[in-house]
Amino acid sequence: MKLVTAIIKPFKLDDVRTALADVGIQGLTITEVKGFGRQKGHTELYRGAEYVVDFLPKVKLEIAIRDDQVDSAIEAICQSATTGKIGDGKIFVSHLEQAIRIRTAESGDSAL
Ligand SMILES: Nc1ncnc2c1ncn2[C@@H]1O[C@H](COP(=O)(O)OP(=O)(O)OP(=O)(O)O)[C@@H](O)[C@H]1O
Ligand SMILES: [Mg+2]
Predict the structure, then answer these.
(1) Higher-scoring residue by pLDDT: 110, 47
(2) Given ligand 1 and candidates 7, 34, 77, which is best to mutate, with the most ligand atoms within 8 Å of its CB?
(3) Does residue 56 line the site of ligand 1, with CB under 6 A?
(4) Which sequence positions carry the modification called O-UMP-tyrosine (predicted)?
(5) pLDDT value, residue 44
(6) How high is the mean pLDDT of the chain?
(7) Per-residue confidence (pLDDT) for residue 56, from 0 to 100
């Protein structure tokens, strides 16, 4: 299993959620976060305004999926989250050791 962590522009959340549902992703967690990329100290557009602060609002998605879902999930996020401008975000993929559905005690792929 893999844990896909994606940092996206907040206004893209609905598009990304729809795109992920379309490729069969059943669950995800989001967190409102702040961050910066390589333009640290430079301006980036947010809701039409130029921010000169280092930290910009982003949304973090965490998606636990089977190994065979990783490519389609990445493709779905990339296509739906892009504007072509700086700050579109990033995707990190990590190995996920275990998953457990609390109600049924199912574990592994069956718990996703
Ligand atoms: N190396 C990193 N580690 C952790 N979080 C990161 C890293 N790079 C970017 N992020 C997160 O992703 C968000 C978006 O990053 P961003 O898309 O600006 O990356 P970038 O490398 O500057 O690319 P671009 O040139 O397209 O802007 C940041 O605000 C931050 O929350
Ligand atoms: Mg950037």
Answers:
(1) 110
(2) 7
(3) yes
(4) 51
(5) 64
(6) 92
(7) 87
